[in-house]
Amino acid sequence: MINNKAIGYITANYTAIEQGKLLASRPLASVPFMGRYRLIDFPLSNMANAGIRTVGLVMPGNYRSIIDHVGHGKDWGLDRKRGGLFPLPGNPYGSTKTGMRFLLRDIISNKTLFQRATQPYVVLMGSNIIFNMDLNAIIDAHETSGAGITMVYVKTERDHEDCSSLVIGDAGRVQSVKEGCRYGDNKFLDCFIIGRELLLEIIDRYATADYLDIFEAIASDFARIDVCSYEFKGLAVGMFNEGTYYRRSMEMLDPRVCNQLFMKDRPILTKAHDAAPAKYASGSLACNSRISAGCEIMGTVRNSILSRGVVVESGASVINSIVMQGCIIRSGARVENAIIDKNNVVPANTELRGTPSDILVVGKAPITE
After folding, report:
1. Which of 63, 155, 333, 359 allows an S-S link to 59, with CB 3.0 to 4.6 Å?
2. What does pTM read for this prediction?
3. CATH ID of 279-362, from 2.160.10.10, 3.40.50.11190, 3.20.190.10, 3.30.70.2740
4. What separation in angstroms does the CA of 310 have from each of 24, 133, 230, 283?
């Protein structure tokens, strides 16, 4: 199925306000999730499942890990002669403002993508609020409404600082966008649909305000443009810092939560890896965990998420933790309430322990010759 109504545009060049060790050497969009995915997989999969076959991906300065993961877009059906995946240049955000995801300067810099398209609509998405959404239903609702822009939101169940919320008036029209989000607010999911011709008009009209987010630039013109809203009633998971990343990941160990994000009819696609299934030695114990291919479990793993190629030696234990690709937990070591980034080796009989409210984070191990 090819969607002839819309093209896609994903921003991956912004970052979280709280940087932390996980973002020291990678962009936010390429942070691993649930052992085998990365955050960028979710907007790409939403678009691929909707049949969108032309997608622009705005790249950060440290883009290596994203390019390594997405390549030419083959795993999302985007390695095509017509359309396909287009890595686009992105501008540095500088001192990033809360909820700033769609820098007008980036949109202006990549005007050619929109000029060359023939589809009438553009779907724009960020990458740190993840969800599994039927974009075709939203495109149809946008088309039926006749609005210039349709912004997707969810009723929030938690307070967030590093996101935006919508002030919605009569008939679902958006009156304004405000920084931050409180319980019960209309949290903007960094997903909206706009007419392609209207986007080109905005590019020309607001060129002198290119340092602003698109919604900051058009704030005084919401009524004229007719900005509509669409409520998403599924699960939306926001990753705003290391604490929320850990908690939202741990929630995925509950099948009732996980099944709201990973669905058979709308699969989350990711880069294919050729790896043997996980190996469990005699006497090992693993329960309530997500253990990826290529892992070797000889010790104990409880309530944890292990990426590819993790080794837990005999007598070692991993509890309530996230252990990323290529790590080795030596015999007698104990890891609890922690995030261990790629390629770390936890020495034998060592204890790395955080608390549920203060997670221990160990950064990526340096590459050695």
Report:
1. 63
2. 0.94
3. 2.160.10.10
4. 21, 32, 41, 18
Closest of 316, 321, 310 to residue 331, by C-alpha: 316
Q: What does DSSP say about strands 334-336 and 317-319: parallel, antiparallel, or unpaired?
A: parallel
- Where are the CATH 3.90.550.10 domain residues in the chain? 6-258
| Model pLDDT, residue 369 | 45
* CA separation for the pair 304, 321 (Å, rounded): 5
Asked if CATH classification 3.90.550.10 holds for the domain at 6-258, the reply, yes or no, is yes
- Whole-number percent of the chain with pLDDT over 90: 83
What's the confidence (pLDDT) of residue 158?
A: 81
Indicate if the pLDDT at residue 368 is higher than 60.
Answer: no
Neighbours of 313 (CB within 10 A): 18
Question: What are the start and end residues of each CATH 2.160.10.10 domain in the chain?
Answer: 279-362
Residue 181 vs residues 117, 165, 235: alpha-carbon distances, Å? 35, 6, 17
Residues composing the chain: 369
pLDDT, position 25:
85
Q: Residue 97 has what pLDDT?
A: 55
